[in-house]
UniProtKB/TrEMBL annotation:
Name recorded for this polypeptide: DUF4238 domain-containing protein
Superkingdom of the source species: Bacteria
Length: 692
């Protein structure tokens, strides 16, 4: 009859492990981890209060009633098995039914699923609690990920009339802004994620109990019976076998014993159910080997969750400390296998062929000669002093950077003229010159040249930098040294990264890449050069910050004027001719500031460190960090300096164009359409002269 105390390890099974079968108290030795073995009545072993169900108040049969009802048949079958002739084949259906029932009804089932669920929840906290990990797992920065598909589905659910701009443009904007604002969104949702996981944890035990009971009620162990019935069953006589709380053990070919509940999908080699201290029920696929009881007992203890029992105290001596180890190991491995697929890094180039990073074998120390020219200034004595200083800088830089493609360095009083007059060794290169801009003054450029059929690089620098090297002022010398190191790092970038990139199959650029990429093509090298030279002058951060702000202000002013003019002449090429070069300046300077920040030791402040806060007024503070992430990824993550990832930077050009109401997007036929939203009517009326 069912009652309050409900056994999940039935007493008819425990009786095979009684210390004294003639003792009316029916006691067995109970072994728990960290406790001394005790002789206790089996009425107090493997039992829980209302483990299966509460008592019925209306006469309806409960789960415990149903289990009690089948126990009579199982008890008789067990008695027959105990008395079966050793080695005699046993009805596989009977053996399978008994084994499946005894295994599935235990508390071990619940503990296994609770442990597994807890590990998964803890892993979820780790995977999704940190924004960097969460964006990787969700595929925020990937192509063709589930995250992207969900966004696409949400967009498709909106009617075209409900969208503020054309659907392809909305798609590009939402995709980019999701990346840009993900960390902020994650921070907003962090407390919700934590609350949800805590609620799941709080309800875990009751949820698993309910699921376990439903499985028992619906006889879902039938598939277990079908699988177990495929084995060949017999009994084996032993001495001193123990009974684990997981009831039955399984061995898969080439592996150790594990709880039967946790069997893998590989071919089962052996199933063992101790039905008494002197008898084992064994199901095998092919082998006929005799089981060593000492090894089996060690495995039984390790596979138990909470306890095991034995007829004699000595049978379990020294085994209780291993209780729970095998189950925990198997569960942990299973969870790790599942989660390992989730931990794969997701990058912008994930759908492109993997390309290993190529670093050419280079000399650590420069064993090459280069020319030093002083044009329009300096006498012989000054040039000699300058040459010694520059040679020292080049030699020290060459210890860490590959710069053997250095052709020479020219310091010029007339910097633009020196650029134009430089012999590049190949007419196809054209004439080197600076790009005109409304702010600051360019003072240095690394120019590609050909010397004796080999690709080289010549650095042209304004004479003011040379004067700074000779200055008594420490800050002036640091600024000039920093500029030269930055130029030398440009050579290193070409040798370490660009050369290897050119050797691989190029990625086909579409029309929008062709239009936008020139604006951001210099950003990677700008980032790298600033990062490599940051140590020489930390105060350069302020110069980079000022250049960012000046270039942004200049771009906004010039593009606004060009956009107002566009409202009249409708010449898109003229508008883009103004906008794209200025956006390019901004991206280059931002990349340099980001590289400088990453090249300094971690610190809260440095000269120019307030730039993120200053860009917040323009809505670009979060974008700044995303741009930094994408640039950093090119160099810090293995195999990421690829054409695909470099072309992916083009989206940052779009992002800055959006701030000035210029929105390019690809049409279905591959051509680029450029939307210029609004009509600027208010500004045109306010400033009619701008339309002149």
């Amino acid at each position: 009859m069912a009652g309050k105390r409900q056994h999940y390890v039935p007493r008819f099974l425990q009786r095979g492990f009684l210390n004294d079968p003639l003792d009316e108290a029916q006691r067995t030795w109970l072994h728990r981890r960290g406790a001394k073995e005790r002789l206790v009545g089996i009425r107090d072993v493997g039992v829980g209060e209302y483990f299966y169900s509460k008592l019925s108040t209306d006469g309806t049969a409960t789960l415990d009633d149903l289990i009690t009802e089948v126990e009579g048949d199982l008890d008789r079958e067990l008695s027959i098995l105990k008395g079966a002739q050793l080695g005699e084949r046993i009805d596989p259906c009977v053996a399978a039914r008994l084994t499946a029932h005894l295994m599935m009804r235990t508390a071990h089932v619940r503990s296994v699923f609770e442990l597994g669920a807890t590990l998964i929840i803890d892993s979820a906290r780790s995977l999704y609690g940190d924004p960097s990990s969460a964006r990787s797992q969700l595929g925020v920065d990937g192509v063709g990920t589930a995250f992207e598909k969900e966004m696409e589905s949400a967009l498709e659910a909106r009617s075209t009339a409900a969208l503020p701009v054309p659907r392809p443009l909305v798609r590009r904007m939402t995709s980019f802004l999701a990346r840009e604002r993900f960390d902020a969104l994650h921070e907003e949702l962090a407390s919700t994620i934590t609350h949800v996981l805590n609620e799941i944890t709080r309800k875990l035990s009751s949820s698993i109990r309910e699921a376990h009971n439903k499985a028992l009620e619906s006889a879902r162990q039938s598939h277990w019976e079908e699988e177990l019935a495929q084995l060949s069953w017999q009994t084996q006589a032993v001495s001193g076998a123990i009974l684990p709380d997981c009831i039955a053990l399984v061995r898969v070919r080439g592996q150790e014993f594990a709880p039967l509940l946790l069997r893998e999908q590989d071919q089962v080699e052996l199933v063992v159910l101790p039905i008494a201290h002197d008898r084992l029920l064994i199901g095998s696929s092919s082998i006929e080997a005799t089981i060593d009881v000492a090894s089996l007992n060690a495995a039984s203890a390790a596979c138990s969750s909470s306890f095991f029992i034995s007829a004699n105290a000595a049978d379990g001596i020294g085994l209780s400390d291993s209780i729970g180890q095998r189950s925990a190991q198997v569960i942990d491995n299973s969870v790790r296998d599942v989660l390992s697929t989730l931990r794969q890094p997701v990058g912008n180039d994930m759908n492109r062929p993997h390309v290993e990073p190529t670093v050419t074998e280079l000399e650590t120390l420069p064993s090459f000669s280069f020319s030093l020219t002083c044009s329009g200034f300096a006498d012989n004595e000054l040039a000699e002093r300058l040459g010694k200083i520059v040679a020292t800088i080049v030699r020290e830089a060459g210890r860490d950077l590959p710069i053997s493609i250095l052709d020479g360095i020219t310091f010029a009083a007339d910097y633009p003229a020196a650029l134009k007059g430089l012999d590049r060794g190949d007419p196809a290169f054209g004439i080197a010159q600076t790009q005109p801009r409304e702010y600051g003054r360019p003072v240095a450029q690394a120019v590609d040249v050909i010397r004796e059929g080999k690709a080289k690089c010549h650095i042209v620098i304004d004479a003011d930098i040379a004067i700074g090297l000779l200055s008594e002022d420490v800050d002036c010398r640091a600024q000039s040294t920093h500029m030269i190191l930055s130029m030398l790092a440009n050579l290193s970038h070409a040798m370490r990264y660009e050369t290897g990139l050119n050797e691989h199959r190029p990625v086909t650029a579409d029309a929008i890449n062709t239009m936008l990429h020139p604006c951001v093509s210099g950003a990677p090298s700008g980032y790298y050069c600033a990062r490599e030279s940051a140590f020489s002058d930390p105060s350069a951060g302020q110069r980079y910050s000022d250049l960012v702000k000046d270039s942004l202000a200049g771009a906004q002013e010039a593009i606004l004027k060009a956009r107002l003019a566009y409202r009249t002449h409708n010449d898109l090429d003229t508008l883009l001719g103004v906008a794209l070069p200025r956006i390019s300046f901004v991206l280059r300077h931002v990349a340099e500031w980001l590289g400088h920040r990453d090249g300094l030791p971690p610190q809260d402040t440095f000269p120019g460190s307030k730039l993120p806060a200053e860009l917040k007024a323009h809505g670009l503070d979060l974008w700044l960090e995303l741009f930094g992430r994408d640039l950093r990824n090119l160099y810090d993550a293995e195999g990421q300096f690829t054409a695909g990832n470099i072309f992916a930077l083009d989206r940052h050009v779009e992002r800055l164009l959006w701030t000035v109401n210029i929105c390019p997007w690809p049409m279905e036929d591959g051509r680029v359409y450029v939307s210029v939203p609004g009509n600027d009517e208010a500004l045109l009326m306010e400033n009619p002269s701008r339309n002149a």
